[in-house]
Amino acid sequence: MTTASPSVFLLMVNGQVESAQFPEYDDLYCKYCFVYGQDWAPTAGLEEGISQITSKSQDVRQALVWNFPIDVTFKSTNPYGWPQIVLSVYGPDVFGNDVVRGYGAVHVPFSPGRHKRTIPMFVPESTSKLQKFTSWFMGRRPEYTDPKVVAQGEGREDENAEAEIPRSTWVCLCPSPAWLMLPFCPQ
Questions:
Q1: Local confidence band at 142 (pLDDT 50, 70, 90 cut-offs)
Q2: Which of 23, 124, 155, 157 could disulfide-link to 142, CB 3.0 to 4.6 Å?
Q3: Res 47 pLDDT > 80
Q4: Residues 6 or more apart from 7 whose CB is under 8 A from it?
Q5: Where are the chain's structural domains?
Q6: pTM of the model
């Protein structure tokens, strides 16, 4: 009697963090990481990375262009906990300290093909005027110790932070010439 071997499927993500619009800021860099369920495992590529510092373009858009490549492969036995990409954007404040300028997350697309995603970014804000003044005076704005919390709903119900979404702040994820592929194969 032959027992059926468990099968897995692979999720290959190939693309780039193309650009961002942060009208008030310049000289920013981007970090990414993936958040996924317990049945998922990375098999190839990098599951986190950090880009170069970029300055605003000189045209009317004043875009921050990274063209930061992403190439990772995951395997899983079920779709629960489908991977999400978490982006964190950092830049200098008036004192020259690196502070968070935005957090955002989006699920990796569920269907094969070329996809373009625009991610709204937010920053946590202090809830009291004293905390706001103290964080400004010390040069340390509120930020998450682990940016992966952005992709998780659990434990964020009673956060002591208000989400501030600056107007016209976004990051664009674009596919590279390769496609998102979901091949099925035995383990």
A1: confident
A2: 124
A3: yes
A4: 77, 184, 185, 186, 187
A5: 9-175
A6: 0.79
Hey, what amino acid is at 59? D
Return the CATH number of 9-175, one of 3.40.50.300, 2.60.40.150, 3.40.630.40, 3.40.50.720.
2.60.40.150
Between 51 and 94, whose confidence is greater?
51
List CB contacts of 33: < 8 A, sequence separation 6 or more: 47, 48, 85, 86, 147, 148
Partners of 85 in beta bridges: 34, 106
Q: Is the pLDDT of residue 186 over 50?
A: no
At residue 166, the pLDDT reads: 44
Per-residue exposure over 40-60, b if at least 16 CB sit within 10 Å of its own CB, e if not: bebeebebebebeebebeeee
Distances (CA, A) of 75 to 9, 44, 180, 187: 6, 10, 14, 9
pLDDT at 137: 75
